[in-house]
Design a protein that fits this description.
9 strands; 288 residues; 5-stranded mixed beta sheet
């Protein structure tokens, strides 16, 4: 991905280096593993944590460390890439959404280390990147990029860009009202139906990420050779089927909340090949 000379977004809030002011009640390694499975690449991936916090009536308090955060050269390069990708998603959706009578409101991207507070609750970095509709912010601990490479076998800068574009896709869903409608419907159906709605939300965000990639290449020639393959590898790597197989040794399709690797690849590819948000209506699709 060629980011040389590209505009960087200023809608970035740097909370790296903040610390926990008072100890939080621990959730244990098993809890963290469950949060990881439930929350990777999801919209508000914190219901488990939120319930735990309500029960315990205690949550981490995050405070400045008192010293400026010192980043190394590699982390600075990742931050620059993140700022460029966020800026490009701003250009894409600012151009596309007015066609549907919606003015794009740019989200803020929060960089953090270890733990962060959002209006959706507190999260540790093990929860992975997430979007909080309550404050319209995307939260990323950039150490997840290393996890994407080392744990999930999906290296490359465009795999990282896919992470950002997917979360911004959830912001688009929030702006157009899809997130609210799905949340309301989930309250009145059974677990299997609620999971199906969650999968459709995630696959639509994957498709929106593909729409962004199409526009980024067609209008601004942002992509380099092999970039789409990196994104497809990332989409496949974080499918529910692969994560379930890694964590519990078997696959339970009815428990999917994000979609299989094959489904995530299919919908990202559909968005990329089409470039049209209208082709990302996963909720009307008979087959995902």
């Amino acid at each position: 991905m060629d980011i040389r000379g590209r505009r960087r977004s200023t809608n970035v809030e740097d909370r790296r280096g903040m610390r926990i002011g008072r100890p939080a009640v621990g959730i244990g390694l098993g809890g963290l593993a469950l949060v990881l499975v439930l929350s990777l690449f999801g919209i508000n991936p914190l219901p488990f944590l939120a319930g735990l916090q309500q029960a315990q009536q205690q949550s981490p308090q995050v405070e400045p460390s008192g010293e400026p955060y010192q980043e190394g050269a590699e982390e600075a390069a990742l931050r620059e890439m993140t700022e460029v990708v966020l800026a490009d998603t701003e250009d894409t959706w600012s151009a596309l959404l007015p066609n549907y009578g919606i003015q794009y409101r740019m989200p803020t991207l929060v960089l953090f280390t270890d733990v962060v507070e959002s209006q959706c609750g507190a999260a540790q970095s093990a929860a992975g990147p997430f979007y909080c509709p309550a404050d319209q912010k995307v939260y990323i601990d950039m150490s997840f990029y290393s996890d994407l490479h080392q744990r999930f076998g999906a290296p490359g800068d465009f795999a990282q860009a896919y992470v950002i574009a997917h979360e911004v896709g959830h912001h688009v869903q929030n702006l157009v009202g899809t997130a609210r409608q799905v949340h309301e419907e989930q309250q009145s159906v059974g677990k299997a139906e609620a999971n199906d709605l969650s999968v459709r939300m995630e696959l639509q965000a994957d498709c929106f990420a593909g729409v962004w990639a199409n526009t980024a290449q067609r209008s601004r020639q942002l992509l380099s050779a092999g970039d789409i393959e990196e994104a497809l590898a990332a989409a496949s790597a974080i499918g529910d089927d692969r994560i379930q197989r890694q964590t519990q040794g078997y696959v339970v399709p009815d428990a999917f909340t994000h979609g299989s690797g094959e489904q995530r690849v299919r919908w990202f590819r559909r968005g990329f090949e089409s470039g049209k948000p209208d082709d990302c209506d996963t909720f009307q699709a008979r087959q995902l």
